[in-house]
Amino acid sequence: MKKIQGVFLLVLILLVLAALAAVNTKADAVSHIDNRKLASWDGNVDAYITDRIGFRDEMINFYTVLHDRLFSEMIHPTYQYGKGGNVFFKMGTEEVDTGFLDLFCRYLRSAQDYCLARGCGFLYCLNPSKTTVYKHFLPVGYKYRERFHSLMTERLERYGVHYVDNVAYLQEKAAKEPVFNRQYDAGHWNDLGAFYGTNRMLAEMARTEKGVRLFGFEDFEKGCRLEESLPVSRFEINETVPDFRLKDTVSKAITGEYQGVRLDRSTWFFAVWETGRDSLPDVLFFHGSYYNSRYKFYQDRFHRAAGIHNYHNFLELDYYFNIFHPDYVIVETAEYATNAAYFHKDALQGKKLNKAYAAVKDSIHRELGLSSLDGFRKMDAASLWELTFRVPDSAAFGYLLCQGREYDLSIRNGTASVVLRKQEYDSAASKVALFTR
Questions:
Q1: What's phi and psi for 28, nearest 5 deg?
Q2: How many whole angstroms separate alpha carbon 215 and alpha carbon 302?
Q3: CA–CA separation, 170 vs 277, rounded Å?
Q4: How many CB atoms neighbour CB 359 within 10 A?
Q5: DSSP 313-364
Q6: Distance between CA atoms of 189 and 170, rounded to whole angstroms?
Q7: Side-chain half-sphere CA neighbours of 420 within 13 A
Q8: C-alpha to C-alpha distance for 357 and 149, rounded to whole angstroms
Q9: How far apart are the C-alpha atoms of 294 and 201, rounded to whole Å?
Q10: By Cβ atoms counted within 10 A, which residue in 189, 204, 296, 396 is the most buried?
């Protein structure tokens, strides 16, 4: 008996040592099982080892599967069971940061004003979480009051944001058809939900944008596919989910023409399509992660469509506007992703967007040729040029004026920068206009 205990103890020690030897020390490492960045070293040994110990994902998955088989209960860092076997994101306390909502809606209005002043349309789209649409399947004992939705729409109205709200609409659709899957991809609508939600967004655009057309079911091959595990998890399921495939795609991908476009490293998706239909608008679309694989629901509906993963990238609206010169900007978020974890409060508070040049050009300002700029540099960024130069402390905002276009300068700590496509740049036909507040 003592020998057996000794062997067991030795095996246990070897397993612990192996796990410690396999600690993940990579910077910015991400766990695929709970879809988040692992703890960085800040002196907290316990948090660092807990997050980065070797075989962590395998141990979590083994424990999750074992607990499900024995007790029909899901113990998982991301998901949990609701009624009827429905899977939801891990439920927490229903808290709403009203300070964040104020900052976010104020920035939406600022972005809207920025676009409209440049002759560009603007639309914000609020989409529901599965928690809101299928609240009758939430875990027993969990009370959900939908406080976020009422507080958010109240502020959208107060700030005068042009928006479309898909929450009640998809709740209505869900009474007859499954717009979220029962288990697979708990945080995101399925293809049917995306079809309905995107069409409602297109319908709002079509009120002012001639030629924008909604999708019909006939535009897709409607099928199903089998999903055998939850996303970013090895948790086994067996669910058939809707699968829409676009017929007769007229758009072609032209993302390669925009190499060098800067993206926040945590929100990586970026793609551009063109249909050749010149009568349709050029659209810049900041969207959530469920559109990263569902661009089929918008890629064919505009002349040019630039899809960009939202959040920190949307806070650089002027950077993307300089590159794409859109006719229309769409911003879309889901309820669960409209909070300070996705949009940093400090960034929302500090971001200032320029007025349109036409609105200030008659104000006192300085105009300078590129050759007279202090410290002027032109840096190669693939299909783009990044121009930088020093400006006086008194310069609060400014523009690059080049071949009939205006480009907003970004001014930080006495240095101005601007990024534009190489084919649009002509040094001889360019000048800089600098303004004080």
A1: 55, 35
A2: 12
A3: 31
A4: 11
A5: GGGGHHHHHHHH--SEEEEEEEGGG-STTTS-HHHHHH--PPPPHHHHTTSS
A6: 10
A7: 25
A8: 36
A9: 15
A10: 189
Q: Tokens in use for 202? A: 């297109």
Q: How far is CA 328 from its chain centroid?
A: 18
Q: Are 204 and 164 in contact (CB under 8 A)?
A: yes
Pair of tokens at residue 140: 């027993």
Record the tokens describing residue 400, joined without a space: 């690059």
Q: Where are the beta strands (DSSP E) in 133-193?
A: 163-165
Stretch among 11-25, 73-87, 175-189, 334-348 having the lowest mean pLDDT? 11-25
Residue 407 φ/ψ, nearest 5 degrees: -125, 125
Q: Residue 26 contacts by C-beta under 8 Å, 6 or more apart in sequence?
A: none
The whole-angstrom separation of Cα 210 and Cα 278 is 12
Burial class (CB in 10 A: 0-12, 13-18, 19+), 33: buried
- What does the block give as tokens for 32? 């695929």
Q: How many helices (H) and strands (E) does the chain have?
A: 11, 21
71 band by pLDDT with thresholds 50, 70 and 90: very low
Mean pLDDT, all residues of the chain: 88
Across-strand partners of 417?
A: 388, 410
